[in-house]
Amino acid sequence: MSAEATSPGAHSRRRGLPRIDLRRLGRAALLGPASRDRLPDAMGHVADAHRAHHPDADLSVLRKAYVLAESSHRGQFRKSGEPYITHPLAVTLILAELGAETTTLTASLLHDTVEDTEVTLDQVRAEFGDEVCYLVDGVTKLEKVDYGAAAEPETFRKMLVATGNDVRVMSIKLADRLHNMRTLGVMRPEKQARIAKVTRDVLIPLAERLGVQALKTELEDLVFAILHPEEYAHTRALIAENATTGDALAAISEDVRRVLREAGIAAEVLVRPRHFVSVHRSRLKRGELRGTDFGRLLVLVGEDADCYAVLGELHTCFTPVISEFKDFIAAPKFNLYQSLHTAVAGPDGAVAEVLIRTHQMHKVAEAGVVALGNPYASVDGPGPADGTGPGAGAEIQDGERTDPTRPGWLSRLLEWQQAAPDPDTFWTTLRADLAQDREITVFRAEGGLLGLSAGATCVDAAYAQYGEAAHRCLGARVNGRLTPLSTVLSDGDTVQLLLAQDASSGPSPEWLDHARTAAARIAITGWLAAHPEAVGPPDATPRASHAPTADRRSTANAVVDLPGATVRLAGCCTPVPPDAVTGFPVRGGVVRVHRQECRAVDRMRALDREPVAVSWGDASECVVTLYVASFGRPRLLADLTETIATAGAAIVSATVEPPSEQRVRHTYTLELPDAAGLSALMRAMRDVPGVYDVSRAQHPATA
Predict the structure, then answer these.
(1) What contacts 664, CB < 8 A, 6 or more positions away?
(2) What is the distance between the alpha carbons of residues 64 and 36, in angstroms, rounded to a whole number?
(3) Nearest to residue 343, comparing CAs of 290, 284, 307, 297?
(4) What are the residue ranges of helices labelled H in 228-376?
(5) For 34-45, what is each residue's pLDDT tens digit?
(6) H or E element: which one contains 146?
(7) How many domains does the chain have?
(8) Which of helix, strand or coil describes residue 295?
(9) CB pairs under 8 A, 24+ apart, for 183-192?
C-alpha cells in the first residue's frame, strides 16, 4: 500500500468521503464564474454530489451563491497558496457528499464572506433569505479586536446557541474544521497542536453527539497524526503491513454472502476498513492484531425486519460471540445511530465483527443530523431573523423538543451556558461536559424521562428535573428505595427526588463531589458563593447532603446585641433543648446556632469569629438529625419508622445507604413535638432488633 493510501484521508475515501483536488479547483476558480446560465466548472463536483442525493434540486441558488463568494474572495489566498474560494468549495463538497440540502450548501459557500470580505449579513439576507443569513451568522467568528482572549470561547458559545435553533450551523462548522484540518500542514507546529486540541476536545465530541460519523472519524485520525505522531506512525505501519498479507475478511464476507443468498435475504455485504484511531484502540485492547481486526463486515438490507433475519442466519450458521451482541435498533443511541452489532468466528477461529443495518440507517449513521435534510421543513416557514432561528416552534414534550435535531444533551448545554457568563468558566465546563462519552435515560417517578450523562448521580437528576429548586433536595428514591444523593444512576432507573418545603434550604459543599453534569455543578457553585455561611470554617467537613439546614421552627431567642436577627439551627449538629448552645453571626443578619461541643465552634473561634449568647425559649418543638447504624434484615426500615411515629415524631427526610458488609447506615431528620422526648426516642430506636447504634448528627473535622 502506498504512502498516499495509508494517510488518514485514504481511509476516508474508502469510507465514501472524498478528498478534493485543490489545484484543479483553484485553476477552475481563477477562470472566474461561468456564463449567466451555466454552472461554473469549479462547482461541477458539488453539483454531481448534490444531485446524487437530491435529483430534483434547483442549482440556480448555488450558482448565485458561488458567484458572490468567488467575487468577494477574489484576490485572497490560503496559506497553502490556493485561491481562497477553494476552501468554501471544499467545505460545500463535504456537506454535499453527506446529503445536505440546498440551503445548507448555499450557506456553506458563503460561510466566510461576512467574516473575511466586504459582504454584510444584510446583503446575504436580501439576496438569499433569513435561513441562509442565520446559518452564515451562526458560523461567523467574533472579532479578536473586540473580545481578545475570550474570542474563541465566545465564538463557540455563539455557535452553540445558534445550533440550538438550527443544527445546520454546527454541520457547516464541522465540515469547515475538517477541511482546515486536512490542510493544517502549512501551519507552524505549535498552531497545529493548538487547533488539534480544540478539535479533539470540542469538535469531535460534537460530531459524535450529532451522529456525523464520517466527519468524526476523519477528524480523529487527523488529530491523532498531529498530537501522537509516534503512535500514528506505528499504526500506519501496521495497516500497511496488513494490506500486503491479503484481506483476511474477504473469505468470511464471501461465506456471509453465500449464507444470506441461500436464505433468500437480499443484502449487500461490504468489508469496512477501520480508521487509524480504531485500529490503535483495538491494538491497545487486544495486544497483537489479527487480519480480521483491521476491519468489520457491514451488511446492508432494505427493512428493519431484515436486520434481525440476517442476525438469525449469522448466529445459526457461524459461531457467535454473544458478548459482542448489541441491539441499537430497538434502543438507538442518543445521536440517532441504529445498527445491530455482533461478532462471529470463522472455521479458523478468526473473529469478525459485523454491523447490520438498513440503507437508511447507514445514511444516518454516516451523516447524522445532516442526513435529515431540512429538519425544519415541517415548521410554518423560517424563524425570525432576530436570533430565534428557523424551527423555533418545534413541539415540546416533557421539557424536551420532539425535534430530533435538538436532543436533550444540547438543550441542557444551552441551559447551563447561560449560568456561565465568564468565558473561562464556559470554556472549561464545555470541554468537561463534552468529555462525557455517552448518555443514560432515567424515568421520573412522576412520569416522563430525563437524559443524563453516564455517571450522573441523584444530584444531577435533581438539577436536571427541578433547576434551582433542586437546592432544596433532601434525598431520593431510586427504583422505589431510599438512597443517598450520591447514588450513581444506571440506564433505565426510576428516580424520585424529595424536596424540602422550606425555600431557604440549600446544598452542601460535598454535593460538588457528587455532581457530574455542568448544570448541577454551576448551580451548586453559584448557591455556595452566595451563601458563604453554608460552607462553614475552611477546615471543617461540609455538612452532609442528607441533613440540610432549614429555617424550621427555631426555639432559640434574645440574641445579645443583635436585635431582629434571624436564628437558624446548624445542620452539622442539630441542637435541641436543653443542649448548651452558642451562636455566630453570618451573612444576611442571621445567627447560626451550634451545640457548644460542635467542632465547628472551635473552628469559628480559631478564625477569631465572635460568638453571641443565645438561649432556649419556651417553645419545646425541635428538629434533630439522627444517625442509625444497623445490620441489614427484612422490615428493618418499617420497624424503625413505626418506632419514630409511635414517639409522635415527624420524619422530615430519610436516607438509607446501600448495605456494606451486611451493615446499613440510616439518616433521619425528625421534627419532635417536645425536645424532652429525644432521649426516650433514641433509646426506643436502639431497641429495634438489628440496630446497634443511634447517635446525634455531629460531623468530624477533617485532618
Answers:
(1) 629, 630, 631, 632, 636, 656, 657
(2) 9
(3) 297
(4) 229-244, 248-262, 276-286, 304-317, 359-367
(5) 555 577 888 999
(6) helix 144-147
(7) 4
(8) strand
(9) 183/22, 183/78, 183/80, 184/222, 184/226, 186/78, 186/79, 186/80, 187/79, 192/226
Residues 517 and 597 in one domain: no
* Whether residue 246 sits in one domain with residue 225: no
Q: Are 666 and 655 within 8 A, CB to CB? A: yes
Looking at per-residue pLDDT, the higher value among 673 and 7 belongs to 673
pLDDT band at 377 (very low <50, low <70, confident <90, very high): low
Helices (H), 287-349: 304-317
Q: Are residues 217 and 254 in the same domain?
A: no
What pLDDT is attached to residue 702? 28
Domain that holds residue 345: 238-369
425 burial type by CB count under 10 A (0-12 exposed, 13-18 middle, 19+ buried): middle
- Does 176 participate in catalysis according to the annotation? no
CA distance 618 to 626: 23
Q: What is the pLDDT of residue 551?
A: 35
How crowded is residue 359: how many other Cβ atoms within 10 Å of its Cβ? 11
- Whole-angstrom distance, CA of residue 521 vs CA of residue 100: 37
**Whether residue 583 sits in one domain with residue 473:** no
Out of 115, 533, 551, 674, which one is annotated catalytic? 115
Please write the tens of the pLDDT for every residue from 172-193. Answer: 999 999 999 999 988 999 999 9
Length of the chain: 703
CB atoms under 10 Å from CB of 238, counted, come to 19
Q: What is the pLDDT of residues 53-94, one digit of tens each?
A: 999 998 999 999 999 999 999 999 998 888 999 999 999 999
| Assigned C-alpha cell, 279 | 485500529
* Catalytic residue flag (residue 208): no
β-strand partners of 584: 592
DSSP code, position 620: -
Grid look-up 455517571 returns: 455
**What pLDDT does residue 426 have?**
80
CATH of the domain at 172: 1.10.3210.10
Domain co-membership, 187 together with 242: no
pLDDT digits (tens, 9 = 90+) for 485-534: 888 888 778 888 888 766 667 887 778 888 888 788 888 888 888 877 65
Nearest to 569 by CA among 577, 318, 322: 577
- Is beta strand 590-595 parallel, antiparallel or unpaired with respect to 581-586? antiparallel
- Report the b/e string of 456-476 with b at 16+ CB within 10 A: bbbbbbbbbbeeeebbbbbbb
Instruction: Give the DSSP H/E element, type plus range, for residue 341.
Output: strand 340-345
Considering the domain architecture, whether residues 517 and 554 belong to the same structural domain is answered as: no
Last residue of a domain, one of 335, 351, 369: 369
CA gap 535, 571 in Å, rounded: 11
Within a domain: 423: no
Helix axes 151-165, 130-139, angle to 10 degrees: 150
- To the question of pTM greater than 0.90 for the whole model, the response is no
> What is the mean pLDDT of the segment spanning 361-376?
83
- CB 290 within 8 Å of CB 248: yes
Confirm if 224 and 277 have CB atoms less than 8 A apart. yes
Catalytic one of 48, 97, 116, 268: 116
Residue 672 and residue 615 in one domain: yes
* Domain final position from 487, 502, 527: 527
